[in-house]
Amino acid sequence: MSAILPPAQRIWWKQPIDKIEWTWILIALTWSLFMFGMMVYWHINGKQNLSTEVYKTTREMYAAKAEKMVSEYQIRTETEQNIPVVKVPEGGDAYLIARLWQWWPILELEKGKTYRLHLSAMDYQHGFSLQPVNINIQVLPGYDHVVKITPNKEGVYSIVCNEYCGIGHHTMLGRIYVK
Amino acid sequence: MATTYRICPRTGLQFDTKAEKLMRWNAVAGVLALLVGGITALLVILTRWPAVKLLPADQFYMILTAHGVDMLIVWIIFFEVAVLYFASSTLLRCRLATPTLGWVAFWLMVVGAIVANVAIFGGESSVMMTSYAPMQAKPHFYLGLILFAVGALVSCFIFLGTLVVAKAEKTYDGSIPLVTFGALTACIIAIFTIASGAIILIPTFLWSVGYIKEIDPQMYRILWWGMGHSSQQINVSAHVAIWYLIAAVVFGAKPLSEKVSRSAYFLYILFLQLASAHHLLSDPGLGSEWKVLNTSYFMYFAVMASMIHGFTVPGAIEAAQRKKGFTKGMFEWLRKAPWGNPVFSGMFISLVVFGFIGGISGVVLGTEQINMLMHNTFYVPGHFHSTVAGGTTLAFMALTYLLVPVLFKREIIMPGAAKIQPYLFGIGMAATSLVMMGAGTLGVSRRHWDMAFSGAPFQYEWPGSAYLMMGLTGVFGLITVIGGALWILIVVGSLLFGKKLEEGTVSAKRTPFAPDTVASSVSSTGNADHVAVPGTMALAGLLLTAFVLYYFVNWKYLSEVWQLG
Ligand SMILES: [Cu+2]
User: Fold this and answer.
1) Quick check: A129 and B376 CB within 8 A?
2) CA-wise closest residue to B366 among B306, B444, B418, B324
3) What is the spatial distance between Cα B18 and Cα B5, in angstroms, rounded to a whole number?
4) Enclosing H/E stretch for B57
5) pLDDT of B437
6) How far is CA B211 from CA B203, B205, B214, in A?
7) Nearest alpha-carbon partner for B246 in B174, B347, B121
8) pLDDT tens-digit profile of A79-96?
9) Is B281 strand, coil or helix?
10) Helix intervals (H) in B93-138
11) Between A1, A24, A173, which is nearest B457 by CB?
C-alpha cells in the first residue's frame, strides 16, 4: 500500500522510469505541443479568430455612437417596440447595444461583405450568442469590442443573450438579417 | 495538549482522536451541503426540462445560485478539509497541529455557508456562482463567502502545520506518502485560490455596501476566475490523491513510479492555475497572446499531468492485479476487479468519466478559437458536471464507503443499494453531461430559464434535436439525482442505524509505522518485480484516439461559421 506509506525506496527520484510510462509521457507531451501549435496556426491561416480590437468607452459615449449610426442608416422599424432596422454599408461600423433586456438595433448585412461589429453593454454583462451559427462572445459594459464579421450565408439570424442578466434574461433576443 | 490515538482494527490506520472528530464533523457538514445542493439540482433540472418547466423565473435563478454555491464551494471544500486532515495526521501517524484552531476554522466555514445561503434564499442575491460585477448581490452574500474562505484557509494552514509537526517529531521516514503529496498539492493551490478570491471578493463586498464606487467588469472576471477555475484544480488534485489511495487500499497497488506521479503533481502546482484563462477566451479585454499562452502552453502542461495520472492509476491497479495472477489477455485484471465493491466501482467510474468526458471536453473548451462555439452555452455546465460531479464528487462518494466503517465505526447499511449507487450516479452523470454538451453544441445557452423565449419581441426556434437533448438532460439528470439521494440515504442511514463496529485500541501513546513495512515492500519499477501493463496502454490509446477525433471535429465546425477577425 505504498501510495499511503512513505516511498519504499528513500531515494525514489533516482529510480528509472519504465519504458511504457516514458512512451505515454512522450505521447502526451507531443499531443500537448501539437495543440499549442494548432492555436497559433489558426491565427495565421484560420478564418475565425476573435478580434482583440477593444476600446474603453462609457455608456453615454457608446450609446451616442449607436444612435448616430441609427439616424444615418435606418431603413424601417420592426415590432411593436419600433426597433430600428439599420442597413450598414460594407466595411462600415455596426453598433450593437446590449441592455436589459434587448439587443438594439436590428442590423441588416449583406452576404460575403465584411463589417466592423461593435459590442458593448449598458448595464450588466451580457452574452452575444449568434444563432443558429453558434458564435458566442462576452459583452462587457465599459468596453467597445470591435469584431470584424463576414456572414457567409443568407438568412434571419437571432442573437440570444447567454450571460445571466436578471429576470428578463430569456426575453433578450436580437436579430440580424443577412441578404 | 495531549490527545489519544486510536488504531482502526479494520485497516490498521492510526487516528489522532482530535483530528478524527474534526474529520467527521467536516464530512457531515459537507454531506448536509450536498443534500441542499441535490434538492436544488432537482428543481433546476425540472425547470430546464422544456416539457416540465417547474419554477417561475425568479425562483429558478435563486435556486440555480444556491445549487452552484452549495455544490461547488460548500460541499466540496468541507469534504476536502476532511481529506486534508486525513492525509496529514492519519497517513503520517502524527497528531494534528492546533486542533482548537481546527474548530475555529470549522465554525467560520459553517457560519459563512449559512450566511451566504440566507442571502441567496432571502432573494436579491440571485447573481449565480460567478456573481459577475456590475450585477450586485446583498452584502452578506459576499460576506458569507469571505468567512467561508477564511475558514478554509485556516484549515489549509493546519494541514501544513501538521506536516511540520510530523517532520519535527520524526513520525515517518524519508518522504511523505504519495497521497499526502497529492493533498499538499491541493493545499498549495487552495492557498493561491483563496488569496485570489480575497483580492476580488473583499472589494466586491465593499462595493456592495457602498465604499467603492465601481468595479471594472473585466478586472472582476480575471480575478474571479483566478479563484473560480483554480478552485476546481484543488478538486482535481484531491480526487487524484483519492484514486491513488483507493487503488492502494483495495488492491495494495503501488505507484508504477513515485517519480512520475510526483512530477505530475508538481506540474499541477506550476501550471494548473493558469488554465483559469479558459473562461476568459471570449472576453474583449484580453490579448490573443495572453490567451494562447495561458490556455495552451501552460494549460497543456497541466493536461499532460492529468494524462499521466490517468495512466499511472489504472497502471498501478493492473500491475497489482497481474501480480495476483490475473494475467490472462489484456483485460482480465479489469474484468476480475471487485465491481460490486462501491469503493472500487465509484473510483473507477470517476476516473473514466473525468478522463474521457471531462478531460477531453475541458481541453476542447479551453482552445482559444474553438471556445467561441461553446462559451456560455450549455456545453460549459456539461463539461464541469463531468469533471466536478462525475469526477470529484463520485471519488468522494467512493471514499466515504471506505471511511464510514473506519472513521464512524459503523457498518454500511443496505449493501445491495450501495453496490448499484456508484453506477446510478456515475453513469447517470456521464449521460447527463454528454446530452448537456450536445445541447450546448447546438447553441442552447446556460443559465437560461426558458429556451422558448416567451415574451421576447422575436421568435427563435431551436432545432428539434436541441429540445430532445434538453429533455434527455431532464431524464438523465433525474437518474443522477436519484443516485445522489441514494448515497445520502445510505451514508446518513449508516451513521444513524448501521451496526456499531469495534473501535479498536485507544492509547495515549503514538504507535509508529511498523518498522518492516518500508523495508519489506519493494518498488515495482526497475527491478525483477516489474510487471508490464498492456491493458492500461490500450485504454490510454483509446482515450487519445477519442481525444484527437473530437478535437478535429470541433475545428471543422469552427471553420464553417462566419469569418471573424
Ligand atoms: Cu442579457
Assistant:
1) yes
2) B306
3) 9
4) helix B57-68
5) 97
6) 9, 9, 9
7) B347
8) 888 999 999 999 999 999
9) coil
10) 99-121
11) A173
Q: Name chain A contacts of B447, Cβ cutoff 8 Å.
A: 162-164, 169
The predicted complex's ipTM stands at 0.95
Cα–Cα distance between B389 and B72 in angstroms, integer? 9
> In 3D, which of B2, B10, B7 has the Cα closest to residue B404?
B10
CA distance A19 to A17: 7
A116 by Cβ neighbours in 10 Å (0-12 / 13-18 / 19+) ranks as middle
DSSP annotation of B274 reads G
Q: Alpha carbon of B456 to those of A81, B459, B464: distances in Å?
A: 11, 7, 20
| Strand ranges of the sheet holding B5-7, from the earlier edge strand across to the other edge | B14-16, B5-7, B506-507
User: Where do we find the cell 448585412?
Assistant: A109
Indicate left, alpha or beta for A128 from its phi (over 0: left) and psi (-120 to 50: alpha).
beta
Q: Where are the alpha helices (DSSP H) in B324-359?
A: 332-335, 342-352
CB of B177 within 8 A of CB of B91? yes
Question: Which residues are bridge partners to A104 per DSSP?
Answer: A97
Is some CB atom of chain B closer than 8 A to the CB atom of A44? no
Beta bridge partners of A144: A55
Which residue in B442, B447, B445, B431 sits closest to B465, CA to CA? B442
Q: What are the 10-residue block averages of pLDDT along chain B, 565 residues in total? A: 85 92 96 97 96 94 96 95 95 94 97 97 93 93 95 96 94 91 94 86 93 91 84 90 94 90 90 72 83 70 89 94 92 95 97 95 91 95 95 97 93 95 97 97 94 90 95 97 97 94 87 57 46 91 96 95 91
Query: What type of residue sits at position B292?
Result: V
Place of cell 422558448: B452
d(CA A27, CA B313): 17
Tell me how far apart the alpha carbons of residues B278 and B282 are, in angstroms, rounded to a whole number.
9
Q: What is the distance of C-alpha B65 from the center of its chain?
A: 18
Give the dihedral of Cα atoms B237, B241, B243, B245; nearest 10 deg: -170
Per-residue pLDDT of chain A (179 residues; tens, 9 = 90+): 478 888 877 788 888 888 888 999 999 999 988 998 898 899 999 999 998 899 999 999 999 999 999 999 999 999 888 999 999 999 999 999 999 999 999 999 999 999 999 999 999 999 999 999 999 999 999 999 999 999 999 999 999 999 999 999 999 999 999 99
CB B502 within 8 A of CB B9: yes
Q: Which residues of B touch A133 (CB under 8 A)?
A: 561-562
Q: What is the pLDDT of residue A1?
A: 46
Residues of A in contact with B284 (CB under 8 A): 54, 119, 137-140, 143, 145
Cβ-defined contact of B367 to A52 (cutoff 8 Å): no
* C-alpha torsion B12→B14→B19→B20, nearest 10: 30
Asked if B431 and B386 count as a contact pair (C-beta separation under 8 A), the reply is: no
Instruction: Dig out the grid coordinates for A87 from the structure.
Output: 442597413
Write out the three cell numbers for B20.
Answer: 478524527
Q: Which of residues 63-92 of A touch B (CB under 8 A)?
A: 79-81, 83
- The set of residues, in sequence order, having a beta carbon less than 8 Å from that of B52 and lying 6+ positions away, is B46, B474
